[in-house]
Specification:
The complex is a heterodimer of chains A (163) and B (464). Chain A has 163 residues and is of the alpha/beta class. Chain A has a single domain, classed as Rossmann fold (3-Layer(aba) Sandwich). Chain A is 39% helix and 17% strand. Chain A contains six helices and seven strands; from the N terminus they run ααβαβββαβαββα. A five-stranded parallel beta sheet of chain A has the order 2-1-3-5-7, with helices on both faces. In chain A, strands 4-6 form a two-stranded antiparallel sheet. In chain A, helix 3 links the parallel strand 1 and strand 2. In chain A, helix 2 runs parallel beside helix 6. The radius of gyration of chain A is 17 Å and the shape is globular. Chain A starts with a helix and ends with a helix. By secondary structure, chain B is of the alpha+beta class. Chain B has two domains: 79 residues, 2-Layer Sandwich (Beta Polymerase, domain 2), CATH 3.30.460; 252 residues, Orthogonal Bundle (Cytochrome-c3 Hydrogenase, chain B). Helices cover 42% and strands 17% of the residues of chain B. In chain B, the strands form five sheets. In chain B, strands 1-4-3-2 form a four-stranded mixed beta sheet. A three-stranded antiparallel beta sheet of chain B has the order 7-8-9. Chain B has a three-stranded antiparallel beta sheet with strand order 12-13-14. In chain B, helix 14 packs antiparallel against helix 15. The longest helix of chain B has 28 residues. The chains are: A alpha/beta (163), B alpha+beta (464). Chains A and B meet through helix 1, strand 1, helix 3 and helix 4 of A and helix 3, helix 4, helix 7 and helix 8 of B.
Chain lengths: 163, 464
């Protein structure tokens, strides 16, 4: 156990230059915007789970979301941002609406992935309502199938910089 | 694909209930119901339903219950004799009005969880009935991410259908694309070029390793041992970056298509995969040793969430859920589809059926997958990676692929123009979700995340 802990401390993970520059920008923007971090509540409103995998990756040591003060929270009541994936299914509409209403203002909604942007490959299905913007107001769309963790970070930086 | 009459259908039902065969799937279309059965071979039995009803299999064989409820929701087919007639995938106009099973007893309370869950995870509802900390009953309600895939498949082009199939469950996109491609090829009577067959195997094993590494870390994390997730998530990231470098997409979506592979291995791909194998072989055993030697972690995982061998057998539970409870079935070995019929590998089986066993099966399968990657790189032939698919005769095809969580079944029928008439995709989770309800019984509520993560069933794959 001790060996594993020390190994992590002695040899930190390195990353390519692009990610390091992005990380620095994101850090500055977060500090400027709110002087603190952003709390994010993730909502899967019908995704295939691909987007969730890449969102999970934001927490790994390479992308390390938390060093910017960005973190995922368990309750919408603690959230500043809703990260929504999937072509909103009819069966998830109410849950998405309730989660949005439970999130206190100010809040921002980010639609993650091609399905959240506009149904993706599921376009035309009677079981799907469509883009997240058909159900709740959306501040930012991050396209991709799924978007990579780098694209997610770039999107979150855009969100912070725009406000 | 065998057309049967009612008597034959009922005899097959008797066989399933008596344990003489295993149910692999049950699905509908507007005027017909099908079931796939595993005896010595995989057989599809098709029963015409001119008046939209058929004798319920679920009335005698529990694994079929939810499948029949779903077929009713999607196609209006009435299973005569099925005791549970509640909708399953159809949440109707009033989504919160669902009759959960009644509860009777002293001092019991209910805990509703979901559909939106605390973490970054798919949605589903879990209705716990607890006596203090102990779970007396778990009742699941799924269908929240039902996207209407069966409906979208009808009349789809092969290209669009392949993209849909690969997005039934994004974490198993390779396995789904693999099974879909082989089902189309079976329907058309064509075979992909040899190089493509090996590339498919490489992608499938990379996907398996990536998921098993992530799961192993996540299981430990749900016992609050987060250092394991920190390290495993890094290893998983290495696998995804390798996949992107070799095939152009971190999850390898749309890389397997009917007729072969859509991409070839990149020029430095083989070297990249070999480096990955070496790196995992160095780093992962250290983590496994840490798992084995941390007593407080073992205390959480050993003896928790036990699935009996009998339940695993009856439900035909696949993947690590089945193999951790003594059920020795792996589609790669038991059905021997290419390239696995030419490869040497073991199928690890354990018998304790607890969270620890399901975690250890993944550990052992990672070792096997690393060896498979090496064998495939050594055997990889040169040549084309894709055969042009000509629309031809209409026909049916069926194929299974061993996804990381178990066998995925794809059945389809093509029309004469080469479009999909019908396509059904059956996730491994149909025969695992119900066992989670059994596994959590008698455990404490706080052990549910641990049990749930050790199953890691698919919501999207299940909900179609």
């Amino acid at each position: 156990m001790l060996r594993t802990l020390l190994q992590g401390l002695r040899s930190p993970v390195t990353e390519p230059a692009l990610l390091a520059a992005l990380a620095a920008d994101l850090n500055r923007a977060a500090q400027r915007r709110l002087g603190r971090g952003l709390s994010i509540r993730e909502v899967d409103a019908g995704s295939c789970n691909g987007c969730e995998l890449e969102i999970h990756a934001l927490n790994n040591a390479f992308y390390d979301l938390e060093r910017f003060g960005l973190r995922f929270v368990a309750s919408p009541r603690h959230a500043d941002v809703l990260l929504v994936t999937g072509p909103v299914t009819r069966n998830m509409r109410e849950a998405l609406e309730r989660t949005w209403r439970a999130t206190p203002d100010p809040k921002w909604v980010v639609a993650v992935g091609d399905c959240a942007a506009g149904c993706g490959v599921f376009a035309g299905s009677p079981a799907c309502i469509g883009a997240v913007s058909n159900v709740v107001p959306v501040d930012l769309v991050i396209s991709g199938c799924p978007p990579t963790p780098t694209q997610l970070l770039q999107g979150l930086l855009a969100l912070l910089s725009a406000r | 694909m065998t057309r049967v009459d009612t008597a034959y259908w009922q005899e097959a039902t008797r066989c399933l209930a008596a344990g003489e065969a295993t149910l692999l799937g049950l699905w509908g279309e507007p005027d017909r119901v099908h079931m796939a059965v595993l005896d010595t071979d995989v057989v599809v039995l098709s029963l015409d339903c001119p008046d939209h009803r058929y004798p319920s299999v679920g009335a005698r064989h529990a694994p079929a219950i939810r499948l029949e409820r779903a077929a009713h929701d999607l196609f209006g087919l009435q299973p005569d004799g099925l005791p549970d007639t509640r909708p399953w995938l159809d949440h109707g106009v009033n989504p919160t009005a669902y009759p959960f099973l009644p509860v009777e007893g002293e001092g019991l309370h209910q805990i509703p969880v979901g559909p939106v869950h605390a973490g970054i995870i798919e949605p589903g509802h879990f209705r716990f009935t607890a006596d203090g900390e102990t779970v007396v009953r778990l009742e699941q309600r799924l269908g929240y991410v039902h996207k209407g895939i069966d409906h979208l498949m009808h009349d789809a082009t092969l290209e669009h259908a392949a993209r849909l199939a690969g997005r039934t469950s994004g974490d198993s996109t390779v396995a789904y694309a693999f099974a879909f491609a082989r089902a189309v090829e079976a329907a058309l009577g064509i075979a992909p070029p040899p190089r493509a067959v090996w590339l498919r195997g490489l992608m499938a094993e990379l996907e398996r390793i990536a998921n098993h590494l992530g799961d192993f870390g996540a299981i430990c994390n749900d016992a609050s041992f987060s250092i394991m997730l920190a390290h495993c998530a890094m290893l998983r990231e290495h696998v995804l970056r390798c996949a992107a470098a070799c095939f152009g997409h971190r999850l390898m979506m749309d890389c397997i298509v009917p007729g072969g592979a859509a991409v070839d291995l990149s020029a430095d791909g083989a070297g990249n995969i070999r480096s990955l194998v070496d790196a995992i072989r160095v780093r992962f055993p250290v983590l496994v040793e840490l798992y084995d030697k941390t007593a407080s972690l073992q205390d959480r995982t050993v003896g928790t969430g036990i699935v009996s061998a009998e339940l695993a057998r009856r439900f035909g539970a696949g993947g690590y859920v089945g193999r951790a409870s003594g059920r020795d079935f792996d589609a790669r070995r038991s059905l021997g589809y290419p390239p696995y019929d030419r490869l040497r590998f073991e199928v690890p089986v354990l018998h304790e059926g607890d969270v620890n066993a399901r975690a250890l099966i993944r550990v052992k399968e990672i070792e096997q997958s690393l060896s498979l990657l090496e064998q495939m790189l050594n055997e990889l032939p040169a040549g084309d990676v894709r055969l042009a698919v000509e629309p031809g005769s209409s026909g049916e095809g069926i194929a299974l692929a061993e996804a990381f969580r178990g066998d995925v079944l794809v059945w389809l029928r093509l029309d004469a123009e080469g479009r999909i008439d019908r396509c059904h995709l059956r996730d491994a989770s149909w025969f695992q979700w119900p066992l989670l309800e059994a596994a959590i019984e008698g455990n404490i509520v706080a052990d549910f995340p641990l049990c749930n993560k050790s199953f890691n069933c698919s919501y999207s794959g299940h909900d179609l």
